[in-house]
Every structure is written in C-alpha cells, then in structure tokens.
C-alpha cells in the first residue's frame, strides 16, 4: 500500500505527540537561545564553527549510543539483525537521532563556545602582536 | 456548525417529517443536498475546505472502533453541513494489534488503552448506546435504550463478536485460570493470558494453540502467540520441558500460500507439532482437557496451557438483521457489501468498513485503513448522486511475529499477491526491521488512521 509524504508526516506527528510536552519547550528554548546568540554576538568574534563542530561531536555520541541501545530497546538482541536491511534501518534511525541531537544542542553550544572575545580586544592584541592573523582566533 | 444553522436544519427536518417525506428523498429531489446546504447560514458564514461537499444529510455510524473513528474523522472533514452521529457505548479504545505484545509480557495494558473521545471530531454527535435493531427499510436503527435514530446514510463499523459459548465449557471468565489464555479480548484479559503463559513457560508441560474455523480477526494472532510462547520457553531454558501443538481447524495455516508454506516448515522446525483438522469443540477447565472435532472423530487432549481462539461472527444485532448476508451466502451473517465498493448489495444508502464486512479477506486494522477511504468516498459520491469511484482491492497486512525481535511484514490483497509497501523489506523472511516497525511505528500509524489522516 502506497504511503504519501503527508501520511508519513502524520505518522511522525503521532509518534512524537506523547513527547510534545518535552519537545515544544525544547524547540522554543533552542529558538530563544539562537535569537539571544545573535544579540550577544554583535561586536564579538563569531566562533560558530567551533560550536558546530562540538555539536557534531555530540551528534556522533548520540548516534553511537542509539546504535548500541536501539536493538535492546525493542527487546531484541544483536543476533536478531540478520540482513543488510536490518543494519541499514539501525544506521538510519541512529543517524536521525544523531542529527536531532546535534541540532538540539547547537544553540547551547553557540553560547558555550561560539562567542569569542570583543573585536576591539582582538584588534588590540593584534596590534601588540603584529605577526598574528585573525584566523588563528576563529574556531 | 453554528446555532442558527442547527435551528434552520431542525425546522426543515420537522417540516419534512410532517409532510411525510424522508430527508433522504428530499435531498435527492432537491439536487443532492447542495441546495439545502446553500440555503443554510453555515454555507454563508463558515468557510470550509474547498473540497468539502455541501450536504445536510444525516449520516449515522454504528461502532466507534478503528473503522468508526476513522470514518467519522474523514466524513467530518470532507462534508460541509452534514449531521454525523456515531453510536457506541464503549468509551475506552483498545489498540488491538498490541494485544499480542501484552499477552506475551512485552507491553503493559496501558500502552494499548486509549479513549474514543480523543479521536472523535467535535462536530460529531456521540450517542453512548448500542444498536439493538437495524431497520434499513425505514432508514433507522433502534438502540438498546429504546432510542430510534433515523438516517439518510448508514455506515456500519461494528467490528465482530467473539463467541466463547460456541466452545462447550468455555467462557471469558476462565481466561487466566486453569491454564487458559485468549488474546482476542480486552487488555486486562490479555494480561491474564500473559499470567497463564508466564506459568507455562516457567514450568513447562503440554501447550495447545488452537485456531477457530471461519473468519477471524488478525488470523496471524494465534500463530504469533504460539511462536512468542515457544520463544519465551527458549529464553527461560524450559523448552525441553514443553511439548507444543498448533491445531488449525482445517489444512491451512494461513490464507497467503507462500506464508502457509513457510509456516508448514517453520513450526515443525521449532519443534511445534501441527495437528491438522482440529477445530476446538469443548474444554474441561477442571480436568484441563480439550476436545477437538477431527474428521476421525472427537479427540481429547490433556494440556497445561491452552490458547483458545473462539469462533467469531458479526455482532448479534447485525447478524439477525436484514443487513446480514443470507444463509446461502459464503459470508452468511456478515454485512452484505460489495467486496470492492463496500456498499450494501440491497440497501444503497448503507456502507460498511472493518471487521463486520462480509468480504473474502481483511479483518485487520490495516484493512480498515484501506477500506474506510473507499466506503467514505463512495458514500459521498452517493450523496452527490454520482457513481461509486473508489474500490477496495482486499489489502490486508499483518506483522507476523516469529520471535521477540523478528517479524515478517505481510501485505497482500484479494488475489493473495504480496503487495509490500516497502519492497526492500522482504515479506518472506523474519526481519528485525519489521519488528522495529511493529514495536515503534504501527501504533502511531494506527492513531493517525483514527484521525483519518492516512
Ligand atoms: C489480538 C489481536 C491482534 C491483532 N493484530 C493485528 C495486527 O497486527 N495488524 C492489524 O492490522 N490488525 C490486527 N488486529 C485486528 C484489528 O485490531 C481489527 O481488525 C480492527 O480493530 C477492526 O476494526 P473495527 O472498527 O472493524 O472493529 P473494532 O475496532 O473492534 O470496533 C468495533 C466497535 O463497534 C462497537 N459495536 C459493536 N456492536 C455495536 C452495536 N450494536 N452498536 C454500537 N456499537 C457497536 C464496539 O463497541 C467497538 O467499539 C488484531 C486484533 C486482535 C484482537
């Protein structure tokens, strides 16, 4: 039986419906953190690249954890994965969890590691250390 | 619908009644309801989706199970101005496909228990009662509390009834005691079944797994219970203390021939003996014996655990009504619908969806998912006095669980041809991916269906 894209989206909505109490505040918090980041960053060095890399690291961690725990969470064992499709499904779901984890943590990381020192401070430092380039400060 | 609209419609209804003309005839004479809806306030004041069909028809849905809720959601969305009434006394909604997991100790009962009210659109009137009598010649039903409800169109979605009394000595109260289990009932009964299986898989003994003759819902469920129990015995290290029998009523294990062949090898391969032609006739709970009416005569077997699958039929009220297929039909007692268009063969304003339909296959919620859009679309076509356009191809599906962690995702149609939604998942071998879908995705898909979204 053919599934439509909207049908799949509605199934996903039902899948997450029970978690909306948690997901909606999380998404709102992320959006607020993102907006706040853009406010905080003005006049400072942008180290979003470092925040991105750290978030990817977290995503990889979430991917690995899902990979390890998913079969057990379905009461199955590793021995139940017997064809390429089973490994493909496991990797696909784990990738989804990894990506979701990375996206969710990114605004937090922006605040933790994505804001560099004030640009004037950098310029002052550069003035005192003429040989150094601005790139060395970028994440 | 606003209050003015309701008042106008009620006044029109009373005027028609006093003139002796049924609303349905009026709707037909007046050009299929569009005129009526156009004359009402709602047509002017409330904007509906462009595709919604204007009508003031009264549609009665009997049964608020999977098919009833799905139908109500769709009709409410696809019609503008219709009066939609659903009749069912049951408040709780059970996700029946999850009962096998409850009865095998994997899910709690709360995971499969929900409320109908959560899925019923607010503009659908809910009568908390049961239909006791169908009077299709007069376009009305009578409820157990004596209320008469008239309709222009009737959608029958009452599911089926489980006839414990067809097995001598058997009743629902026995489930969970005397080593008796049955997965085909409420979640608390499935839990009681798990308690019986829990004991059997701890202590061992003789396990009998029966299957009723005739049409039953989810014909895979008796097989799933057999294989899950065998799996549990293995897990507990008690397999060698148990003797297992699967007892089909005839010479078939499953209607789809490839799966029949697979199971014919698979079950004996797991040490499960197949005793062909063994319909369960009687049970003696005290003595723990079961009697089977085999072609060679009655055979009585002792058991420590028995999974009873009682015969099933359309609910009595339907079975004894003019809507039921006659005795000479191969679907005797079930709702007599055209198997493709799902419209009643004798009463053109009656449609059916779900387990109650007398169709060759398809007593699953997967069939409900495929049938409801067809029944609803054809009903709406009839409101507009157009030909039926939608056809049901017999689609049915069942994740046949072979053990915890593995299942075969079966999908096929009237021709018994496999029709996989995801061709990359083989329907011929047990896979964890199919199990993953059963465990995580089928419940959300079922809920999306109840909201008429898939
Ligand atoms: C153990 C088990 C396992 C299953 N596994 C699967 C599976 O894996 N996959 C799958 O697709 N399907 C499965 N099914 C089948 C699926 O659950 C049913 O086919 C589906 O629920 C049928 O929907 P329905 O609306 O026709 O009937 P139901 O959902 O049973 O609803 C019928 C409703 O009608 C009401 N009713 C009855 N008589 C009257 C009356 N006279 N007046 C008013 N209301 C009335 C009842 O109260 C009930 O609410 C399984 C079922 C069971 C029991």
Q: C-alpha Rg of chain B, in Å?
A: 24 Å
User: Major sheet of chain B: size, sense and barrel closure?
Assistant: 5 strands, parallel
pLDDT averaged residue by residue of chain B: 91
Mean pLDDT score of chain A: 89
Could you state the oligomeric state of the chains shown? heterodimer
Poorly predicted residue ranges of chain B: 1-48
The largest interface is: A-B, 29 and 34 residues
**How many domains in all of chain B?**
2
Main sheet: strand order of chain B: 7-4-2-11-22
Helix fraction of chain A by DSSP (H/I, runs of at least 4): over 70%
Helical residue percent of chain B?
Answer: 25-40%
- Shape label of chain B: globular
Keywords (chain A): Membrane, Transmembrane, Transmembrane helix
Transmembrane segments (chain A): 20-38, 50-70, 90-114
Pfam family, one (chain B): Pyr_redox_2
GO molecular function (chain B): FAD binding; sulfide:quinone oxidoreductase activity
Write a structural description.
The complex is a heterodimer of chains A (139) and B (454). Chain A has helices at 5-17, 20-41, 48-73, 84-113, 119-128, and strands spanning 44-46, 115-118. Chain A is mainly α and 139 residues long. Chain A has a domain at 46-116. In chain A, helix 2 packs across helix 4 (84-113) and helix 3 packs antiparallel against helix 4 (84-113). In chain B, helix 8 (221-236) links the parallel strand 14 and strand 15 (242-247). The model of chain B is unreliable at 1-48 (pLDDT under 50). Chain B has two domains: 1-89 and 128-160 and 314-401 and 412-454, 3-Layer(bba) Sandwich (FAD/NAD(P)-binding domain); 164-311, FAD/NAD(P)-binding domain (3-Layer(bba) Sandwich). Classes of the chains: A mainly alpha (139), B alpha/beta (454). The A-B interface holds A 1-4, 6-7, 10-15, 17, 70-71, 74-77, 80-83, 85-86, 88-90, 93 and B 106, 366, 369-370, 395, 397, 403-406, 411, 419, 421, 424-426, 429-433, 435-436, 439-441, 443-445, 447-448, 451, 453-454. The structure holds flavin-adenine dinucleotide. Flavin-adenine dinucleotide is lined by residues 62-68, 87-88, 90, 96-97, 99-100, 130-131, 157-159, 183-184, 217-218, 221, 315, 317, 354-356, 363-366, 368, 397-399 of chain B.
